[in-house]
Amino acid sequence: MTETVTVSISDAEAAIAAALEAANTCPAIARPVAQALVAAEVDGQKGHGFSRVASYGAQARSGKVDGHATPVLERVMPAFLKVDAGNGFAFPALDLACDALVETC
Fold it and tell me: What separation, in Å, do the N-terminal and C-terminal C-alpha atoms of the chain show?
């Protein structure tokens, strides 16, 4: 019989962030990645949620993804943004873009 375990969103985010940090990802990058994976899992998008933790950790550990890359935003025109994820995870770059777009409106 399979036992069901319930974990709070904040505990799930903390556990995933800790796993990513252990795989050579800085805390400032691990947090938004963890938040995105938990949000996907909560929304029922299991292929984009917890199932990605191991592969993301392996990518950071191997250097395929730079777990320390800080995304850079360039405002090309008032309503045109360019974001460079710096070979890092997409989620921090997407957060940066979304925050800048909200300020534009």
Answer: 52
Q: What token pair was written down for 21? A: 């940090």
Q: How far is CA 47 from CA 13, 66, 96, 102, in A?
A: 17, 22, 24, 28
For residue 9, give every residue at least 6 positions away whose Cβ sits within 8 Å of its Cβ, in sequence order, or none.
38, 42
What SS3 class is residue 44?
Answer: coil
User: What pTM, to 2 d.p., does this model score?
Assistant: 0.90
* Cβ neighbours for 35, distance < 8 A, ≥ 6 positions apart: 13, 91
Q: Are 30 and 21 in contact (CB under 8 A)?
A: yes
pLDDT digits (tens, 9 = 90+) for 14-40: 999 999 999 999 999 999 999 999 999
* Amino acid found at 50: F
